[in-house]
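Q: I have 326 residues here and want to know how they pack in 3D. Can you give me a structure?
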Amino acid sequence: MSPVEELVRERLQAKRKTLADAAELRGEESLVELLRRVDDALAHLEIGDWGLCAVCHEAMDHGRLASDPLVSVCLECLSAEERTALERDLESAARVQRALLPPRELVHDGWETAWMWEPRGAVSGDHVDLLKPRADGDPVHLLLGDVVGKGVAASLLQSHLHALFRALVTPEMPLGELLVRANRLFAEATAGASYATLIGARLRADGTAELANAGHPRPLVADRRGVRPVEGSGLPLGLFAEADYGSREVRLGPGDVLLLYTDGWTEAAQGEEEFGIGRAAAALRQAAARPLPELLAACREEMERFLDGGRRGDDLTLLAVRRTSE
């Protein structure tokens, strides 16, 4: 059994335990049927023919298997009716996901923000959210994350993160504690079968940006000293329920920019060479004085110039923050 198949087996076994417990407790027919599908996938892993289409017996797309290890028929072998139904489901999922996105721009207490969100396909595993203050004087909260995998499965977990953080965020809760609680709930919901990298930011009226990082790419700060990454990171959300998280603060002056991004930007590759954090920092340095929507577009254009007509392999999300006053 290959390392990939070993990993899939571990995740399916964890999922099976969760489903078995839930099916025994609730007795729902849908849970029993899902449990049967998990058992079937585990059996094929043991036999050695997991990942082969049940109709044509050819190897299925790795990306599709990564997003749904229970799939048993390749796209080419779906009937016309099944393909149409799948397309409708994807369109519906995309509409729901886009409806959950926050306002494109936000101005509050000397801060302005803007973001760019571009799925690789119909739906995205990238998570972006801006939580407006509920009362005067409360800070703004920003969240940017990336669920492992692609497709509908990743988008479902992204929606779960959206609901989790909106339910948990309070101005009084330390940012590190917010990630601790979200991680515990996310790990329980996924039974350790999936994870997400994420960075949270809390913007205060005094120009301080508090950051807490769960395994996410390092954010970049552009100020009068140049462009630099902000160090500090914990484990991705969902790996271990008892993981601990801290936070650190960055003080921004008027005109300074904080840029959060997913790895679809820095890991965009031409052959074996990635765009990388060096090129990312250079792109931000050149565009730092522009209005935020133009800054984001310029950062994306630098990546496209590097790809030279090639297609990126992942979702792309950029979130920029500028301090506008003392």
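Q: Anything worth noting?
A: The radius of gyration is 21 Å. The CA atoms of residues 138 and 171 lie 6 Å apart.
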